[in-house]
Design a protein that fits this description.
By secondary structure, this protein is mainly alpha-helical. The chain is 82% helix and 0% strand. The chain has one domain: Helix Hairpins (Orthogonal Bundle), CATH 1.10.287. The two termini are 63 Å apart.
Amino acid sequence: MSIFKRFSDVVRSNVNSAIDAAEDPRKLLEQTILDMEGEHKKARQKLLESMTLLKQTEKQAETYKKQGVEWEGKAMAAIKAGSDELARSALAEKQKLEAMAAEAEAGVAAQKGSNEQLKDQIVALEKKIHEAKSKKDELIARLNAADMKKKQAAIASGTGGGAVTDGSSFDTFERMAAKIENSEAEVEARRELMGSNASEVDAELAKMTSEQQGNDALAALKAKMAASGAVSSGASSPGAAPSAPTAAIDDELAKLKAKLGS
């Protein structure tokens, strides 16, 4: 449930109970503003937590990238030492880390979008709280004026506030105009805030590295090795038919060795 949905439920519950129980509209206005401020505090806390998670995810993505580079270096060292098996293992680790880095970066992009939306909602909520406070002062002033007129009318009629025909009509007007109308005016101002619900942002995760991605990785490695100079030769160990990921690594390893003149 979004913060704006919870906020809507709180406002609706307070207004309904106030009308049914004939609560003092002054208390209603004070309470609804307190509710708004409470939701504002929750929204800021949620933004803080989201920004903290974003920083952590960004650091994790960088860590995966650095580790991938390290494993590429290990693969190069293994090829120079003539150990094809170790080179394949190192390249497999590199590919795994690159996939993890891509997934983390996708999460970073999604989190940034979510944070921007939450910031916009907080700004809008702050504006509505300010407007509600200004409106509250105006409504209370109007209600106080209505109370004063009621007392003056009671004194002028000599009833001391007792029930007469004109007094009853005045009471009905005050109750409807000052209590319900004023309370509903407050709610209407707040409904504008509730009009835009926080959108749920779905993070699209990156796909795992495919066979072609593995080929591209080794092709890039071959180019680096070709520019680095001569290396020791090493033959691939014979064995059963490799799996798809292993075959991709073996194929790139063979091309790399041919490029180096092994």
